[in-house]
Every structure is written in C-alpha cells, then in structure tokens.
Amino acid sequence: MVSFDKLQMLTFSVLILIIVAESHRKVPVEDNGRELERLLNYVNRPAIKSFQTELGDILDCIDINKQLAFDHPMLKTHSVQLRPTNTSKWAINSNNSKNGGSVPFGQDGIRCPLGTVVVKRITYEDVIQAHRLKSMGSKYSRYVSSKGNNIDLTGYHFAVGEFKYDNYGGKANLSIWEPEVSPTQISSASMLVATGNYEHFQSIRAGWIVYQWLNKNHSRLFTYWTADGFIKTGCFNTLCPGFVQVSTKIPLGYLFNQVSTYGGKQYEIEISIFQDSKTGDWWLVVFDENVGYWPKSLFTEDGLVHGASLISYGGEVYSPVKEKSPHMGSGHFPIEGYLKAAYVNGIEVADEIDGKLSKPPISTVNPLSTTPNCYKAETKSDSKVPYDAIFYGGPGGCTF
C-alpha cells in the first residue's frame, strides 16, 4: 500500500515527467509511462461493476469503504455519512430556474449496486488536467487572499460575482456551455466557498469545465479543493484522498450531454455546497442528489471548520502565453443578456449553521473582472430570468 506522503510524491514525479515530455518531444514516452501506470493503478480502485458510456468514459462501481478518500491520514477511522443531517432545509428551499432546463443524470442505465459508489476511472488526461487546474486554483486563491496585490495573472482570467460575508455555503444554478478551447486551454464556470488568506486559504469549488484533452470540447462536472492555499493540498475531483463519494448515480467528472445554445434552449446545473450543522462536513449536492462530501477533519479551526467568508460565482479561463485566450461562458458579453450570455441565478446563501437559506440582495454580490476588455461580469435583474442573476463571459482573444 502506498502511503499518503508517497502518493503526493508519486503524483508530483509523474507530473514533472509529463511536463518535461510535453516540453521536449525527444524524451521517450516510456520514461514516464511506468510511474504513470503505478499512479493510475493506485488511484483506480478494484471495480465490482463497470460501465462504458457512449462517449468512452469508464465508470466503476467500487466498495464505498475502500475508496481513495480513506487513504488520507485524517480519515483513517472516518465513518461514512450517507446523507447530510440537515438535507430537509435545503430541499424545502429548492428554487430551480423556470427558464433553464435541468440536465438529466443517470443516463446509459448507470446505477451501482448497494454498498458501492460510482467513480469515473482516472486517466492520463485527468492527471494532466489536475496539474493545470492546481495552477488555476492557486492563482485565484492568491488573488482573492491578497486583494490582487502583486499577483502575476499571466494567462489567467476571471469574471465572477463575489459575496464577501460570513456564510455556511450556498446554492446556485449555473447555465452550462461548451466553449471551444485548444488542447492547452481551459474554460470553466463554478461556485466557490472559501475563507482565509495566503497559506491559510481554504476553499471548495464545483461547476462545469471544458478541457479538450478530456473529451474534445464537452463540458464536465468538476470539483476542486485546498486546505492550505494550494501549497501542499489541492485536489481535482477524486484524484487524491479527501472527497468522500456517496452517490451511486453521479460521479465527479461526469459529462453533460445537454448544453445551452446561443439564442436557444438554456440548460442549467443546480449546485449546492453547504456545511452540515452537526458533523461540520461540507456537502456537494447536484440537483437533489447527494454526491458526496469533504469531511471537516480535512480543514482547520481557522479555516472551513467554522464556515466560510466568501462565495464566488462565475467563469474562469486559462491560456498559455502568446495564445489568444478562449471563450468564457457563451463567448458573449453580459450586456447581451438572457439566451445569449452565460449566467448564474437562483443564488441562495446559508447565513446560519442550521442550513436555512436566504436570498441575498443582488447589490451584496460584487462583480469582478481581471481582464474587462475580454471578459466581463455584471449583476442585474432580468425579467426573462427568475431571480436576480450574475451574467458573465466574453469572446476572449487576450494575449500576453
């Protein structure tokens, strides 16, 4: 069995080898193939049952008590929580958009047996994406925690709305898009809950992401978390120990088969990230499905153990230097409004640890755009969209 520390070193070694191989094509693939195979064999646990989707993903049903999460040193004696203790208050306050269509999950007849959970089998491409996402997450966290002072954002662009008040999580609907990206670019939209500064920065995010290596330009469900400002921790989906999966239907990394179209039908994903009032664990709920949670023990007393101080909603992109940055959201500016610009609506916040939700005035959500000539964020009321909304996005085209 590989220890948690050795897993971190193994992952780092594989990433370095891959980066070198990408930068210097003369380096043989075999040089990193053995280490990569070792890593993938470790993170992909034995499957009791497997499915292959129409688009080629392999989804494994694994023993709920043998998932990678429990290799984390803080979770060795952790008992699985199958559901949050305060689900009812979130369900009662459910407010799906009346304009956007919900994306159905559980396609292809995928449902795991009792005592198992569903996970997407980790691939070489997932490892590459994890490295790039860590850089993206690190940039945003450092920007937030330092108030934008002396942070090099080369290649990174954000257009979001920020709610900077104490909270215990929130809920929102994100319109789903599939912006075109090159093999080295990323375009995403998410909701993030966070607190702390610099190395004490702790955050959890969830949303959709488009990364060509994963499956051309398709949009996927993703999560990312850190407990130390991405210094030692920082994990994409289930690539490292931490997130406890409980769903038998929805795996992290799941591919959306329906997305919004410019001027046409809008599709949304409803995401909730909230702290359980009794256990202190942070839950991820997609629509009304409890996907899983990040145990309280992953975080610290001066961090997410006692709630968050920021919720952020909106889009992020990454593009290498000298390559024109990709579309964010629909690829159109917020001024175009509903049906044409990407949005986040149905915003609700848990002001108290009991999980009761409230709708914050849209004036308390502050728009932020790091590159306003390419991407913008606006908060406004649009009669065509239920509830106040954050509209964000843009055509990109920025270079450095």
Automatic annotation (TrEMBL):
Pfam families documented for this protein: Neprosin, Neprosin_AP
Signal sequence bounds: 1-23
The protein's name: Neprosin PEP catalytic domain-containing protein
Presence of keyword Signal: yes
Alphabetical list of InterPro entries matching this protein: Glutamic_endopeptidase (IPR053168), Neprosin (IPR004314), Neprosin_propep (IPR025521)
Top-level taxon in the UniProt lineage: Eukaryota
Keywords: Signal
Domain Neprosin PEP catalytic: 144-399
